[in-house]
Every structure is written in structure tokens, then in C-alpha cells.
Backbone:
């Protein structure tokens, strides 16, 4: 039986090669619309150019989820499919994937398709996608239902944090109160936030410096019960800060497995210049 791990492009894994047998990884690109120009969030996207055009555009830009047809084509690629989407409160990606699943199962009821609403973006999706592969590699005889039960447990026991230095896109899109975003920009305050159930950024706390921001991240991870599991740090052209955060995490949890990667288009759109997205499980 063949397997596929599929995510939308809010997951920043690119070129991921699963280690479990008979398993592939694919992603469905979202689109970002800027002043009538569409940018497809795939391997060929020039993320720096996208960010430049979004910053120069005074009106709100927008994103569009993968179509039902795009999801359906990916779902036909294997007998057993685990799909992971950006938060259903941020995008229609989850809904489109559900519609595609129903359509493909009408064609072939013997397939297995399970869709995970990550309730996040960025690093948490990467954690979930890799964990599907690791679980199957460690449990080669696991049934589809056992794999889906495990990944649901992991989703519940993992979270995402956003460390932001710029807030223009979030305020334009209504993801953050305009007054809070304008004040934070003016005072050059870093904001640590997480994904709320309403699809906005829920502020955990402000920080005047990167050092203070990292202290808040470590304190939040400890409060969540993190004890050294996987951490994914996605950055918007800010690898140095990601590496410094990695060192700070290792100071408290030497055995933590930290992976750093650049943000694709969709996550760069939300995290903005110098932003970090941190996903972790415990």
C-alpha cells in the first residue's frame, strides 16, 4: 500500500524525502494576490520579490487556498493519504481539502484520506508532517487508523509561536488590531504571539529586545510543558536570529532537536520582515 504525506504551502518543507517505505511528500501551493498580480507559493517563487511588492502596496493583499481540484489530484497519488492544512480559521484550505477528499472517495471508496487541521501555520505543520513519517518508520505495521490517531495526539500536544517585528500585513488583513500594530511598529517592539481560535494573532507579550523576546519564548515553552522534543524555527531572511534562538533552546534542553528553515511565500506574508515562526511539541 502506498502512502502520501501532503500539506499546503503554509508548511515550509521543500524537498522533503520521507524515510518510511512507499511514502511520498507533496505540497499544494497557496497563492498571494498583490495589486492584481498572483504569486504562486511553490519552489519557483521569489520570496524576496513578493515581500517587496507586498510592502510597497498600500492596500491589503490577499491569499487564496489550493483549489478542490488541486487537492484531489494530490489525493489520487497514493492509497493512504495524510493531509495537513493551515488553520481552518486562516484560510479555506482545510475546507477545500475536505471537499476534495469526499470527491476522491466517491471515485474510489477503498482509499484512505485523513485531513488534519493544524490550527497553525509554519513550524507546527512541519513537525506534524515529519512526525507522520517517523511514526510509520518506527511502526511499519501500523494501520491507517493508528497513524491518524497518533498524529491527532501530536497535533493536540504541539503549538506555534510567532515572533514578529513588523505588523503591516497583519493589520491590513485584519489579523491584528490596527492600533496595536501601529504602536508596535512605531516603538519598534517585538511581539510574541500565537494562533488564536478566531484566526488572529493572540499576543503573548511584547519585548523591547531580541534577548527579552527569546526569554519569553523559553518561558512560554516551559509553561506549555516542553521537555526537549522537536522544534522547527522558520525565518523570514533572518537565519542569524533563528540560530541564536536555537542556541538559547539548547542551553535549557541540550538534546532538543531543532530544525531551521526559510519561510515560503505564505508564511513570509504573515510573519513579515525578520519574523520567526516556532513550532514545537512536548
Residues:
Amino acid at each position: 500500500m502506498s502512502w502520501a504525506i501532503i500539506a499546503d504551502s503554509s508548511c515550509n518543507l521543500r524537498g522533503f524525502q520521507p524515510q518510511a517505505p512507499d511514502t511520498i511528500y507533496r505540497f499544494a501551493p497557496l497563492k498571494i494576490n498583490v495589486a492584481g498580480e498572483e504569486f504562486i507559493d511553490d519552489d519557483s517563487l521569489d520570496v524576496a520579490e513578493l515581500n517587496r511588492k507586498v510592502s510597497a502596496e498600500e492596500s491589503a493583499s490577499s491569499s487564496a487556498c489550493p483549489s478542490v481540484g488541486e487537492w484531489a489530484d494530490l489525493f489520487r497519488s497514493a492509497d493512504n493519504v495524510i493531509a495537513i492544512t493551515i488553520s481552518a480559521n486562516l484560510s479555506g484550505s482545510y475546507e477545500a481539502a475536505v471537499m476534495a477528499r469526499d470527491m476522491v472517495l466517491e471515485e474510489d471508496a477503498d482509499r484512505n484520506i485523513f485531513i488534519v487541521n493544524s490550527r497553525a501555520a509554519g513550524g507546527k505543520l512541519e513537525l506534524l508532517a515529519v512526525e507522520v513519517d517517523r511514526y510509520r518508520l518506527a511502526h511499519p505495521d501500523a494501520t491507517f487508523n493508528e497513524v491518524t490517531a497518533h498524529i491527532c495526539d501530536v497535533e493536540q500536544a504541539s503549538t506555534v509561536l510567532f515572533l514578529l517585528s513588523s505588523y503591516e500585513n497583519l493589520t491590513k488583513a485584519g489579523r491584528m488590531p490596527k492600533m496595536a500594530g501601529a504602536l508596535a511598529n512605531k516603538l519598534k517592539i517585538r511581539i510574541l504571539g500565537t494562533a488564536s481560535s478566531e484566526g488572529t494573532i493572540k499576543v503573548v507579550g511584547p519585548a523591547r529586545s531580541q534577548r527579552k523576546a527569546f526569554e519569553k519564548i523559553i518561558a512560554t515553552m516551559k509553561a506549555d510543558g516542553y521537555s526537549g522534543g522537536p522544534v522547527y524555527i522558520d525565518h523570514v531572511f533572518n537565519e542569524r536570529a533563528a540560530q541564536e534562538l536555537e542556541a538559547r533552546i539548547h542551553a535549557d534542553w541540550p538534546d532538543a532537536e531543532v530544525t531551521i528553515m526559510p519561510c515560503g511565500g505564505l508564511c513570509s506574508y504573515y510573519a513579515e520582515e525578520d519574523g520567526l515562526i516556532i513550532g514545537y511539541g512536548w
